[in-house]
Amino acid sequence: MKRVSLTQYLVEEQRLNNSIPAELRLLIEVVARACKTISHAVGKGALGEVLGSAGSENVQGEVQKKLDILSNEILLEANEWGGHLAAMASEEMETIHQIPNRYPKGEYMLLFDPLDGSSNIDVNVSIGTIFSVLKAPEGMGSPTEQDFMQPGSKQVAAGYAVYGPQTVLVLTTGNGVNCFTLDREMGSWVLTQRDMQIPADTKEFAINASNTRHWYPPVTRYVEEMLAGSTGPRGKDFNMRWIASMVADVHRILNRGGIFMYPADAREPDKAGKLRLMYEANPMSFIVEQAGGAATDGKQRMLDIQPSTLHQRVPVFLGSRNEVERVTQYHQA
Ligand code: AHM
Ligand code: MG
Fold first, then answer.
1. What residue's CA is closest to ligand 1, atom 16?
2. Which residue among 164, 193, 222 closes a domain?
3. Using a 6 Å CB cutoff, which residues line ligand 1?
4. 249 with 292, same domain?
5. Tens-digit pLDDT profile for residues 166-214
6. Nearest residue CA, atom 19 of ligand 1?
């Protein structure tokens, strides 16, 4: 089989479809290189002295792991100097990160969750990096947080890496979804799946069932009907999976279908779920839609939501189209 590298794929895309401007190509390659570095650190585990808590909290009051902070630094350092970015934002930083004045500024803005699935770091379960790319408003020297407040439909690229038994990078620039596998000996990303497609129907769902008693009625109804199996209203049996790393759950769904849910619930009525819109829900929703799936917050298309703050949370329903449509309908009933 002829091996196609990430660089070759991006250059060919640029030539054939004119969908990837040179500056965006550089951005994607830099992010991919940073993910390689993070993958290496993750793979060292205890030998690299990277496990455990850093003894600090992020802006959302979550305990930061050493690898959360290290991954954030790797992404910042890799992306600062190339001239392709106007600013960055991250789950691990309260405010946006400006490109230092000593470097040229570019036309894109990068958002990321440097290490998703933090609770899995120390137990050797798959974790990953999620990223989203927006255009900076034209003529802006230093963007403000307000300039980041663009709906997900404005994303020009999105992707995630999974650091698991294999390290993979899944990418969309709005022209389908492709998967690259890290060749660890060669240190290169090799195209291994073209045009990934999520089947419209599925028999698999993912939700943290320990929160069942807090769910709102539409979610309770939807899950109860699936649990009732072949003798219930759905007339078929369902299987359940929950990895507690969104990257790994979404990767399974891209490969064999399924629905992933992180709903809002009655515990903290003011908190709209757990996951963050700008650097978790939006990039994953862009990828899922590009693979033929659907993504909503239970009421509307995720990518249509107008953000109001950088770290805002949102209920998430994404994956196989017919299931996402069903649970979204239940919210309207
Ligand atoms: P994180 O970005 O701090 O790791 O939190 C996000 C993660 C998702 O990857 C995952 O789906 C969810 O939190 C798991 O939540 P729970 O602890 O309720 O299982
Ligand atoms: Mg996360």
1. 244
2. 193
3. 62, 91, 113, 116-119, 208, 244-246, 262, 274
4. yes
5. 999 999 999 999 999 999 999 999 999 999 999 999 999 999 999 999 9
6. 244
